[in-house]
Amino acid sequence: MADSIQVQLRKGALDLCVLAVLSRGESYGYEIASTLVAAVGMGEGTIYPLMRRMQNDGLVATRIIESSSGPPRKYYRLTPLGQAVFDAHRRDWRSFADAVDKLLEDLP
């Protein structure tokens, strides 16, 4: 049962986590995925479809940069809309987490 809760929490927070990574600056897909795997254990395979959706929704912009050590890399950065959505999601997350923490503190 605990694994199920962890999976659901990760799925629910994935957008917020990607936006948080990009709020720190431009990054390429593998770097985003690696950061999320290390930080919260999210699978790499879920990142690329999410990045396409975020691009289609206008939350991120991209640019391609040639790499001397392999294929070109697609870099992602937040758009102004993406920054606004991140700010709103972060406020919502904090409010929700505070409410859950309060409930857990009140338990005997």
Give the SSE layout.
Layout: H1 2-23, E1 27-28, H2 29-40, H3 47-56, E2 60-67, E3 70-78, H4 80-105
Antiparallel strand pairs: 1-3, 2-3
Helix pairs in contact: 1-2, 1-4
Number of domains: 1
Mean of all residue-level pLDDT scores: 90
Kindly name the structural category: alpha+beta
Tell me the CATH topology.
Arc Repressor Mutant, subunit A
What oligomeric state do these chains adopt? single chain
Largest sheet: 3 strands, antiparallel
Supply Rg. Answer: 16 Å
Task: Give the overall form.
Answer: elongated
| Total beta strands | 3
Q: Beta fraction of the residues? A: 15-25%
Helix count equals 4
The order of strands across the largest sheet is 1-3-2
Can you characterise this structure?
By secondary structure, this protein is α+β, with helices and mostly antiparallel strands. It has one domain (about 1-105): Orthogonal Bundle (Arc Repressor Mutant, subunit A). The protein is about 65% helix and about 20% strand. It contains four helices and three strands; from the N terminus they run αβααββα. A hairpin with a 2-residue loop joins strand 2 and strand 3 (about 70-80). Helix 1 packs across helix 2 (about 30-40). The model has no long low-confidence stretch (mean pLDDT about 90).
